[in-house]
């Protein structure tokens, strides 16, 4: 809020850096917590400390600390230093002329509603992307790669740790190298959409990947030699991996290469996050990832094409005003 427009990328980088540090520390902490194992160590009120509950207790503690700091140590007021003006040396005519000029300029220059709509649509697209990555990816990755719960936590932590380092590198380039002044924001957004599009097109279950997702079977046992009858007669204590039997689409859905399967971006779509997980879960249970991937690729393509079409209009209000003043001076 208090930063100048020229320093806005740097300010945003510093603000987002805190969340990114948490993204890096959390997986590292999770990897250490995995040594506790399951069911874990007895704790208060009948609970246990294990790889699933310790992160919850830490989150609750941090939330309490954050709430305390906001209530007692933060007032939310913006303080801007203003230079004193010697009013006795300035005539009223200059004030009236300046005020009239500012009112006239504001009346002629309004914000670009199309650009605002484009930004909102892009935010919705990013919200859909993060919902798919957080709702569909975890269970699907466990089925595709035949992970146990512990392995899923391990690889998810490693993937999140790598993403966190990538984000820190990007933020550092904005804060230290002033990347925001060298690369236009609209170019960065278009580049990000292209990367996300490449991710979803390469992780789509194409038919040439071959084979199919194996159904549930004991870990370490060849799924091709394990039948549904064997599963029904198996001991319930077995650690089963693979696709649930009720997902019929696993018979025709090929797996995805692991290196292409990690998430790339972390974004926020608050409105979408309320409704989308329920709908995506139902679609995933019925059809798998095929239609979800087709939908998100179509949405990303639409968003990217719109950015290219309206590229010249996706500028800040300050740039828009400077162009208007320049055109007015020429005329």
What order do the helices and strands come in, and which of them pair?
Elements: H1 8-33, E1 41-42, E2 48-49, H2 54-73, H3 92-108, H4 113-135, H5 137-144, H6 149-175, H7 179-182, H8 185-202, E3 217-218, H9 228-232, E4 240-241, H10 270-287, H11 290-309, H12 317-330
Antiparallel strand pairs: 1-2, 3-4
Helix pairs in contact: 1-6, 4-10, 4-11, 8-11
> What's the number of helices?
12
The average pLDDT value, as a whole number, equals 70
Number of strands: 4
User: What is the approximate shape?
Assistant: flat
In terms of DSSP E residues, the strand content is: under 5%
The separation of the N and C termini measures: 35 Å
Strand order, biggest sheet? 1-2
Please trace the helix and strand order, writing H or E for each element.
HEEHHHHHHHEHEHHH
- In oligomeric terms, what are we looking at? single chain
Strand count, sense and barrel status of the largest sheet are: 2 strands, antiparallel
Helix content: 55-70%
Radius of gyration, taken over Cα atoms and rounded to an integer in Å: 26 Å
Would you tell me the structural class of the helices and strands? mainly alpha
User: Uncertain segments of ≥5 residues (pLDDT<50)?
Assistant: 100-107, 257-272
Describe this structure in words.
60% of the residues lie in helices and 2% in strands. The protein is mainly α. A two-stranded antiparallel ribbon has the order 1-2. Strand 1 and strand 2 (48-49) form a beta hairpin. Helix 4 (113-135) packs antiparallel against helix 11.
């Amino acid at each position: 809020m208090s930063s100048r427009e020229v320093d806005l990328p740097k300010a945003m980088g510093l603000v987002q850096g805190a969340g990114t540090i948490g993204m890096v520390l959390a997986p590292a902490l999770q990897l250490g917590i995995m040594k506790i194992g399951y069911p874990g160590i007895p704790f208060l009120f009948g609970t246990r400390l294990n790889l699933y509950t310790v992160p919850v207790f830490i989150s609750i503690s941090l939330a309490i600390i954050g709430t305390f700091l906001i209530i007692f140590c933060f007032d939310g007021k913006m303080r801007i230093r203003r230079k004193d003006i010697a009013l006795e040396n300035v005539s009223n005519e200059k004030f009236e002329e300046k005020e009239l000029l500012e009112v006239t300029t504001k009346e002629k220059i309004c914000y670009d509603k199309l650009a605002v709509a484009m930004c909102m649509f892009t935010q919705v697209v990013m919200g859909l992307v993060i919902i798919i990555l957080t709702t569909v990816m975890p269970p699907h990755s466990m089925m595709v790669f035949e992970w146990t719960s512990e392995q899923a936590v391990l690889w998810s932590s490693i993937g999140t740790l790598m993403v966190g380092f990538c984000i820190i590198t990007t933020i550092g380039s904005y804060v230290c190298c002033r990347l925001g002044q060298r690369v236009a924001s609209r170019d960065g957004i278009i580049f990000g959409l292209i990367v996300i599009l490449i991710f979803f097109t390469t992780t789509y279950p194409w038919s040439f990947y071959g084979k199919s997702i194996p159904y549930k079977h004991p870990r370490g046992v060849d799924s091709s030699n394990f039948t549904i009858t064997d599963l029904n007669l198996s001991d319930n204590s077995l650690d089963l991996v693979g696709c649930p039997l009720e997902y019929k689409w696993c018979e025709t859905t090929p797996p995805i290469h692991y290196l292409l399967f990690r998430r790339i971006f972390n974004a926020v779509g608050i409105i979408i996050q309320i409704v989308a997980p329920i709908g995506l879960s139902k679609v995933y249970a019925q059809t798998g990832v095929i239609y979800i991937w087709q939908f998100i690729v179509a949405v990303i393509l639409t968003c990217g094409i719109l950015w290219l079409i309206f590229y010249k209009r996706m500028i800040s209000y300050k740039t828009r005003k400077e162009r208007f003043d320049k055109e007015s001076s020429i005329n």
